[in-house]
Design brief:
By secondary structure, this protein is α/β, with parallel strands linked by helices. The protein has helices at residues 19-26, 63-74, 115-121, 139-145, 165-176, 224-242, 244-247, 257-265; strands at residues 2-7, 31-36, 49-50, 60-61, 102-112, 126-130, 150-155, 209-210, 213-214, 268-271, 274-277. Bound molecules: adenine (ADE).
């Protein structure tokens, strides 16, 4: 997979050289390049922002540096910093039927980035991340870019960061670890939070007794059926307690009797394959 990140703070993306993602880059599983938006400005001060039309606080990112940067990145000419485009279209993303790269614009006003989004984006050939700062990027950039990219404004959650860089670190890690070969044991991707619409069960390691706290006995029993059931029920308990919103989407149609009982104990009935919280619970 090819990933390009455009930012006015390229140094912010340095952690992408570390750990699993850094190793994936070294191993050639992920071709990731970070670009400085200011390399696509033409004035002496390398200006990327200006005051907002209509007034109000803060500054807005100017459209032309973004168009220059995104055109170069989409055409694979991103090494040509300082040689801006003539206003044409990105060569690799024309209307010739070739798949458009996905342009992800981190923003609290975007659609929610979830594990399902990460899986979907991990299937793409090229992702481009446009890190906005200040009050955001001139809206016309997103309209223009839609001709050449599949544009997806994306939010990590309902809170406001100072810019897109931290969100990109999170999204690239979530997507990158799903690429084939990045995580050593692919089984660890199966039993983790959100892989099945539930939170993960609690985990324990040695010693079996620590500061007067014992590991749940079932985990020492060697009975793999019982262990699997206990872990599932712990997922239900945790999800009901911490993220009941996830249970609205949960497919409870084919649950075994013991699992229905577990949900009943948590105050949920199965109605038409869906979980319904009892009003008295
Ligand atoms: N930029 C600022 N806030 C953000 C958020 N919540 N998610 C993604 N990008 C952002």
């Amino acid at each position: 997979m090819r990933i390009d990140v455009v930012s006015i703070f390229p140094e912010y993306l340095a952690p992408l050289e570390l750990s699993l993602i850094g190793k994936a880059r070294q191993d050639g599983l992920l071709d990731l390049k970070v670009h400085d938006l200011r390399d696509y400005t033409t004035d002496r001060h390398r200006t990327v922002d200006d005051t907002p039309y209509g007034g109000g606080a803060g500054m807005v990112m100017k459209p032309e540096p973004w168009a220059q940067a995104l055109t170069a990145v989409a055409a694979g000419r991103s090494g040509d910093a300082g040689a801006p485009d003539d206003g044409g279209t990105p060569e690799s993303a024309g209307p010739d039927g070739a798949a458009k790269p996905v342009l992800i614009v981190p923003s609290p006003a975007g659609e929610r980035f979830t594990q399902a989004t990460a899986h979907q984006l991990a299937e793409e050939d090229q992702l481009v991340f446009a890190c906005g700062r200040y009050e955001g990027i001139d809206e016309r950039v997103l309209e223009w870019a839609a001709e050449h990219f599949t544009v997806r404004p994306m939010s990590l959650g309902d809170y406001v960061l100072n810019g897109g860089e931290v969100a990109v670190l999170a999204m690239v890690e979530a997507i990158g670890r799903l690429l084939p070969g990045v995580v050593g044991n692919p089984e660890s991707l199966v039993e983790e939070s959100h892989s099945d619409g539930l939170l993960e069960y609690p985990v324990y390691t040695k010693p079996s007794s620590w500061r007067d706290r014992d590991v749940p006995a079932v985990l020492l029993s060697g009975n793999h059926g019982k262990i699997a059931q206990w872990r599932r029920h712990e997922q239900y308990r945790r999800t009901a307690e911490r993220r009941p919103d996830l249970l609205v989407e949960f497919d409870a149609g084919k649950l075994p009797r013991a699992d229905r009982t577990a949900f009943s104990d948590l105050g949920y009935d199965v109605v038409d394959g869906r979980l319904l919280r009892r009003p008295d619970a």
